[in-house]
Structure formats: structure tokens, C-alpha cells
Target: HK97 family phage portal protein
Amino acid sequence: MVFDFLKRGAPEMPEMKASATGPVVASVSGVGRVAWSPRDTVTLTRVGFIGNPVGFRSVKLIAEAAAALPLVMQDAEARYDVHPLLSVISRPNPAQGRAELFEALYAQLLLSGNAYLEAVGDWGTAPQELHVLRSDRMNLVPGADGWPVAYEYAVGGRKHRFDVIDGHSSICHIKTFHPADDHYGLSPIQAAATAIDVHNSASRWSKSLLDNAARPSGAIVYKGMDGQASMGADQYDRLLSEMESHHQGARNAGRPMLLEGGLDWKPMGFSPSDMEFQKTKEAAGREIALAFGVPPMLLGIPGDMTYSNYQEANRAFYRLTVLPMVSKVTAAIGHWLSERTGEAIELKPDLDQVSALSSERDAQWNRVASADFLTPEEKRAMLGLPPLAAESASPKAEDQAQEDEGN
Model:
């Protein structure tokens, strides 16, 4: 009965309803834990490309350099100077030229690991137009055997389906290697996501320091007599006016301060941890450049002297980053166009016109030209050139042959 009395006297607590997983979520995302940005394509593009100068410059540098490379089209017999496919590649659509189209294609591949190229026109003929589709709007529809049966492009609640019929599609899907995904590629920006978060956080910290916590050069500490820890209003206004008129501004730089009794000057500066923050930001920038395959020297990031000079770094950039990507993309597009038109063509970059590789090209040409044991056709094959076409006899040569037969 006593316990009943105590229960009646206690205030009733309102009934509260909560999810059973609430404590688990709270423990995982508690205060003090590191907050990483989401790893989806849209968020990574926003924080790693639009909102990060190192990621932006890396993508632009690779995409622009790759799009500027001249392309050649050839088959097993000859190299084409004029071809319907070359015409559509040089002017893929009314809004873009060749450089703009390939720059967008390479940028999509770098940002998402996937690039989608649409061909407009009937199958079996050369495309009338080529368009680059945004990777974040495209979804691959796998079939029962795991191979894609369609591609769905969604914009604003509307979807368009590109069916894959007998292995043929009007969409050319180019992807990078992904060890844990069978249908989509892995982008460099995903590998650099942690470094991007660190770099952005360091930039925000610096901005916050300037806005809210920028440290003054020092502080004047008042030590009053008889335990008095505060100044009077007249004393405070007089000291503030004297500081503004005699010790602030460029004209008063270096002027010594004369402090009266009870005033003490305490200089202030950045702590060692504050000074290390800039080094952390530079290290994160180098990691971002490393993920994209861009030498930090080309981005102006200090502290990296891997290459002895700028020319060597630029040559390594083309040889190790730009050319492998361009060769992969152009080979995929050439194979896709060959299936579409029924012609066995090959699309590849013209290495003879890459100025960054001029020294390597000159050395290769000299080695091949000085090889006397090789025939001209073997030399052309080693340089990646098609064989010479059979020359037709000229009219003068035919007349001379007829005269020789008459005699």
C-alpha cells in the first residue's frame, strides 16, 4: 500500500514512441565522428569538380588535352582522309564540334567512370548525329544472362528506353574497370573522395578562421590594483581611442607602445597545429592529382619534385594518362561504328601530331629509318601506318609499254 501511495504521488511520464534502430543510428553517427560526403555521382561531381579547384583543374586538363588530339581513321589497306564517319565525327551535331563532343565525353568518363554516346539514324548506315548523354541520368537494364538489354535515360520524371537488339544498340557505353561492379565503371573521383573531403574541409577551416576566428597580433591584459579586474568606462574609452589613433593602420606600423601601470602586452600567433593545416591541405591536393594521373607540378601544387622539369612532367602526363584513355575510348567508338556500318575501320589518335611526344617520335623514326634489314612495308607497320596502295600506271607509262611491244 505504501508503494501504491508512492506511485500515485509520482508524476506520470508521457508515453514516447521511437524506432528500435534509433540507438544504433545515434551511436554510428554520433557527435565527434568524421562526416564524409556521399559517394554518389551527383554529390561527388558537386564537391569534387564544381567545389574543388584541384579536381576541377585535373578533369579539365585531361579532357581538354585528350579532346585536342587529332584522330585518324584507317582500315587494313589505307588511311582515310575523306569518309562519311569522319564527317560526322568532325561535326557530330549542330551544337557541338569534335573537340566539344570529346571533351564532354572524356569529362563524363572521369567524373562517373561511365560515358554514353548516342547515334542518331538507322542501323546499318553512318550516324547522322552523335550526342553525349549525362551519366547520372542513364541506367543500364541487365537481362537474365547479365548482359544489358536496354539503357534508360531519365530526365525530370520522363524516361526514354534504348533497346539492345541482337547485341546492337544506338548507345555506345564506355566504362572504366571496376572490380566490384559488372555494369558500371569506377571513376578517379571516387578513389579521391576522401582526399577531396579533406581538401574541402581545410578550405572551409581557413575561411572560417578568416571570418570568425582570425587571431589578432596580440592582446592588452589589464591587471588592476587590489584585485580590480576591470577598467572603468573612461579608462576603456581612452585606451581604445589611443590604440586606434596611434597604433593601428599602415602609417603606425612598428611604432612602440607605451603602457601605463596595470597593462601588459601578450603577443599572439598561430599554433603549430594551425601551421600544419596548410601542409595537410597540400598533401590532400597531391592525392587528388595522383588519383587522376596528373603530375602535381602541372597543377602548381608545391612540395612535389618527382619530375626534374616541366617538360618531363608534361610528357609523362600524355604518355601515362591522356594517351591510354584516348586509345581506349577511340577504339571502343571505332568498333561500335564498324558494327553499325559494316565496315572494318579503326579509329585512333594520331601520335605523329602530339607535340609533347616529339622527342620520342623523332628517336623512334630515326631507329626505324636506320634499320637496313627492314623493308619499307615493315617499317610502315612498325610506325603504325597502313601499307602503301598499289600505284596505277600513268598514261605515259602505258604508251611507253605499247611502243616497246611494237618494237
Q: What stands out?
A: DSSP finds 15 helices and eleven strands in the chain.
